[in-house]
Write a sequence for this structure.
């Protein structure tokens, strides 16, 4: 029986895929078969019951942590009941990992992703994109329900520059061997390289059909990559926010970023070059 879960809860377009694969290499970590199950924010999956969730892992005696990475868990207000659902799970301990990046760059990357996905028809900034970059707001419900000590925050910039110390700190947070020598930290995984995220929009719509989505969760990742390549969308989108757009976004985001320091002890304004 799995008792301890580590959830990489976001943020979207902040390196969650790379982080998942780094940690999945650790022998005391059991990675979920589907990296991003979205279990606690997908109504259909959630109502199938917790046994469906536990079946995502091939648990072995040497494992101490069950790992998954669902960015939907910090997509408030798109998904409203995530924290309440996790808090209702009995007999399990949850720890949460939240990785962030320059929030304006994150919005730009999300716009590019949504254009490729067919969600956006033109490169516009939406209120939802801004909400996903309000990092303190996204963390508040988790901190209130589980306590600040169950949250580990880190920056994508730090993970890229110094992956080893960042991963050691993460191992300490997860209670696993921090002296393990990670082999794959030179690899960076992102949506440009992930065939599953470059599918034609019509193929992605097909995956929203419950039966198709459920079947997809049973296919190993390596096999998925081979299946997805023939269905890849050849069209790419390069989005570049204007200086005015970037300035307007910093104004909107600043109060939340200030709370990252006061409420979560994470001073990022200087790191991201925001003027005092």
């Amino acid at each position: 029986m799995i008792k301890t879960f580590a959830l990489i809860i976001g943020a979207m377009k902040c390196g969650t895929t790379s982080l998942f694969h780094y940690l999945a290499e650790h022998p005391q970590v059991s990675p979920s078969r589907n990296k991003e199950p979205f279990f606690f924010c997908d109504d259909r999956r959630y109502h199938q019951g917790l046994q469906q969730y536990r079946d995502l892992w091939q648990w072995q005696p040497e494992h101490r942590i069950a790992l998954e990475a669902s960015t939907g868990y910090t997509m408030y207000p798109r998904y409203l009941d995530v924290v309440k659902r996790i808090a209702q799970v009995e007999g399990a301990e949850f720890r949460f990992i939240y990785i962030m990046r320059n929030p304006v760059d994150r919005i730009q990357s999300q716009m590019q992703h949504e254009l490729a996905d067919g969600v956006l028809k033109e490169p516009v900034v939406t209120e939802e994109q801004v909400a996903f970059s309000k990092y303190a707001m996204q963390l508040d419900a988790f901190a209130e329900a589980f306590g600040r000590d169950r949250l580990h925050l880190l920056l994508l910039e730090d993970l890229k520059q110094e992956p080893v110390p960042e991963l050691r700190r993460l191992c300490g947070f997860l209670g696993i061997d921090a002296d393990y020598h990670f082999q794959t930290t030179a690899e960076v995984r992102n949506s440009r390289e992930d065939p599953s995220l470059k599918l034609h929009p019509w193929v992605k719509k097909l995956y929203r059909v419950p039966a198709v989505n459920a079947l997809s969760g049973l296919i190993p990742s390596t096999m998925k990559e081979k299946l997805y390549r023939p269905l890849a969308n050849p069209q790419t989108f390069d989005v570049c926010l204007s200086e005015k757009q970037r300035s307007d976004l910093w104004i909107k985001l600043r109060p939340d970023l200030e709370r990252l320091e006061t409420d979560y002890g994470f001073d990022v304004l200087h790191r991201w070059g925001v003027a005092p």
Remarks:
- Residues 206 and 212 are 7 Å apart (CA to CA).
- The two ends are 50 Å apart (CA to CA).
- The chain has 13 helices and five strands.
